[in-house]
Each structure stands twice: as C-alpha cells, then as structure tokens.
C-alpha cells in the first residue's frame, strides 16, 4: 500500500519502436541530449531516418518553430506506427553491457513511472545544481511534444539485489530488443507485464532513498511543467532505476582543466596551497591513480602540468567529515586561490574530462594547461552530503554508462 512520502513507482504503457526495426535497433538510439555535440548530432541523423535524436534535440536554435516541428514529427511517427504504444502496463528491464578499462561490465536497471516529489518533501535527492538555459529548452520541448524520450536516472541501495534476481529469470528468454549503440554499450530490453510481478516491482522502492544521478534539469523541468499544468497529466515522470550495490554500478570522477590566471604563478599557487594546509608531493608522471590515494581521514587530488609533465599529489586532513577532494579543490584552488566564483566557473574558465586518456590528451593540447585529477565519489559519500540539504559542485560525477534515449518513451498522461 502506497502512502504519502513514500515513492510511488508504477508500470506504464510505453511507446516503443515497431518490432520491424529490430535489425536496425542499434541505429535508432541516441545518447542523452546534453552530451550530444553538433558533429555527433549530424552522425546520428545520418545513421537512420528514425534515429531518436530527431525527437530529442532541435536542429536550428534560431528557428522559432523548432519545438512545434519536433512535436509534429512525433505525431507523424505515431500515425505511421514507427513507434507503437505497448498494449499493457509494464516495467521495462534493461541490461547494459560495457567496458570499464579493459574489463567487461554489466549493469542492470529498469524503467517505470515515478510520481513527482518536491525536493525536501519525499525521498528524491538531487546532488548537483542546474542552469536556467537547459531547463527552458527542455520545458519548451515538453510543452509542445508532451512526451519524454529518455529517463531521469536514479540510484538506490539494495543489498538484497532484488532487481538483479528478477533478471536471472528474464535472461532465460530472448530480449524484446537488443543492439550496441553509438556509445559502444550493448542494450538489451525485456518487458515485465504480468500483474503479480508488476505489483512486486512497484513495492521494491517504496521506502528507498532515490539519488538523481543524471537528469537534474529534466526533473526540475517536470516540476515546473506540473506547476503550470495542474492536474494528473504531469504528476509522473519516466525514471530509470539502478542499484548502487550491483557489481556493474559505476561512478567516474570528472577531472578539471584550466589555465593559471595572469596574476597567479606556479610558485604563488604552491604557496597558497601550503598556506591552506596542503602537503605537496611530486609523483611518478605515469601513475595517475596514485595521486588520489589516501590514508586515514585525509583527502587528496592530483595537480598536473602540461609543461614539464609534472604530477603533484595535493593532500591534507579533512576539515569536516563530509568534505570531498572535489569540494576542496573547487574551494581552495578556484574560489579562494583564483577568486573564481561558482557563477564565473560556468562561463568556460574550466573544462572537464571523465577518462584518464581524454584528460591527458586535453592537458597536452596547450603548454599552459593545468589539470586537477580527482578520485571518484562513492554513492554513500554523495548521499551523506545531499541528506544534509547540500548539493555538490556542477560536473561532480559521471555515472557510467549513460542511459539511451529512444529505447523506452513516455507520453505524459497516456501511460
């Protein structure tokens, strides 16, 4: 029995690609809208005439009718049965197979509808701040099209791994759809429709704390849509749920790249860090993970220089039990060291990479580049912070792999 302040997770009748597209399935999916750069968008458009990017992103930001055109295309795809609504309410179980370094990994999760909760009044916790521009874009598209082609990504904690147990039976039968997408992730989809199973699944997350991993802008957009459109239509969002205790769960750090301000030298930066209580140790330039290894109640991050290939380990004791290396680097270097406010950081002073390879590649592109190499935050670390009502700096986490758009689609109020 669902009660107020519990999570209300329900099955729904999603819109899925017509089964005639099974051979082309991999070319129908697209990454989340906010990681698609122009060249990627063009490649996705070329990959298939019905690639989901056509409904997730507008093509010309100067076209005043761009959102209406996407809504018209969505309506046409329904009429032509490019996408079809599932006949029964279901939960949509997704297996993601991917590589982490040179090791194969599997992540299990499922898609359902989640009743919206205002922050601070339920069990949904955001961990990053948002920007107004992306929210306005998503709201305009949602109001015109009235559908969501990707889910908001939630994590929860379940040591019993009940969803993973359900997959053991599902994997005995062929998936509804299967294919490897443009991110190199093999996606497999199963539908769970029988009443007994859906009732059981609905109750799994009733009392779980739900962390928004990805989709903060879309969650806040959904809240705004509901405020503007009171009633039942905007009460639910499409959500993807995965267990933080599952072996394939992965959070990557997002490293920072920047240049010294004109009024700050290397030596001045070192003096500032030592004055703030940090120890500075030069390390082997080829062993990046060693820069973040800690003992006891310490935090550590790497400070890397393009010029001279210098790698420094920057460490000190935590100032409070919840402090992370990311928070320390952000505050002690960018804010106190350089005088960069959080608002200024949003204007391109810092760039971001989440893999070691891309981080080193970007670092070497300019002899004046510096980089902050960070450790990953754990699910428990993040939850400890957000349960105090705080949020982490922007670009603090990369939940890998990203979920796919177009795999499961929800039309507001029609589930």
Provide a concise account of the structure shown:
With 415 residues, this protein is an alpha+beta fold.
What does the model show?
It is a single chain. This protein is of the alpha+beta class. 29% of the residues lie in helices and 25% in strands. The protein is built from 12 helices and 21 strands. Strand 4 and strand 5 form a beta hairpin. Helix 4 packs across helix 7. The mean pLDDT is 93.
Question: Which properties best describe this structure?
Answer:
9-stranded mixed beta sheet, 29% helix, alpha+beta, 415 residues, globular, 12 helices
Which structural class matches the secondary elements? alpha+beta
Could you tell me how far the N terminus lies from the C terminus, measured between alpha carbons in angstroms? Answer: 20 Å
Largest sheet: 9 strands, mixed
Rounded to the nearest angstrom, the radius of gyration is: 22 Å
Would you count the extended β strands for me? 21
Helix content: 25-40%
Tally the helices: what do you get?
A: 12
Mean pLDDT: 93
| Poorly predicted regions | none
Strand content: 15-25%
Q: Which term fits the overall shape?
A: globular
